[in-house]
Design goal:
The chain is of the alpha+beta class and 237 residues long. It is built from 7 helices and 12 strands.
Length: 237
């Protein structure tokens, strides 16, 4: 649990034969990083690919958490490094692997969201839940972008990057599709607005998704930014 931020997460295998989700959170003097990854089920090495994605993203953004520099550049570099690192290890293992990746990199009041695939980032502000990522999918079960595949082109690995802000009282949610495909936005928001500890909220989201019938791995990372939103934000529609 973070000391200056209220961060918590949960990840369960669920009804799948094995776990292909991974999650990570770290904090430095200048900010914090949250990341989730979901291995692509059709690839033998995707359980390892998702773990590598989280490890690589954390390593690639470590300096940003110290100097709070060019966040979009750090985020884009993290995605590039992730793809290369997965390809290198999958080649060494002699098996294919691919994964989604969604991250939030924060320094002070600045935030960058980057993602490839269908893992998502949400932000709850003044009671309003906003989905900050758009799934890279051609259909419910067909991804158009992922990291690590030997067949991936540069476009397949290009992240969507969003620069935004952070305000006191914000609640951030990163989730894999096992969670957000099983719960409505209203259900997500209800858990995030009840004031529960971040870890309790993450566990509630995962358990609710499984209870709703999710047959996938389920992962949720919740970060509560301390403080209260300004009056102008709290009163916004």
């Amino acid at each position: 649990m973070s000391r200056s931020l209220y961060a918590g997460w949960d990840s369960k295998q669920g009804r799948r034969d094995y776990q292909q989700d991974a999650v990570g959170f770290c904090e430095g003097p200048a900010g914090w990083l949250g990341v989730v990854a979901d291995g692509v089920g059709s690839y033998e090495g995707s359980d390892r690919a998702s773990v590598l994605a989280v490890e690589s993203a954390i390593a690639s953004t470590a300096l940003a958490l110290v100097d709070g520099g060019d966040l979009p550049l750090y985020a884009a570099t993290a995605v590039e490094d992730t793809h290369r690192n997965i390809r290198r290890e999958m080649d060494a293992l002699g098996k294919p692997g691919a994964t989604t990746l969604a991250l939030v990199l924060v320094a002070g009041a600045r935030a960058v969201v980057a993602h490839v695939g269908d893992s998502r980032v949400y932000r709850l502000r003044a009671g309003r839940l906003e989905q900050l990522t758009e799934d890279h999918r051609a259909s419910r079960h067909v991804l158009t972008r992922s990291l690590g595949s030997e067949r991936a082109t540069a476009d397949d690995c290009t992240p969507d990057v969003l620069e935004t802000d952070v305000q006191p009282g914000d609640v951030w949610l990163l989730s894999t599709d096992g969670v957000h495909e099983s719960l409505t936005p209203e259900q997500l928001a209800a858990v995030l607005t009840d004031g529960a500890d971040a870890r309790v909220a993450a566990q509630a989201l995962v358990e609710s998704a499984l209870a709703a019938g999710s047959r996938d791995n389920c992962t949720a990372l919740v970060v509560r930014v301390p403080g209260e939103a300004p009056e102008t934000v709290r009163g916004a529609a």
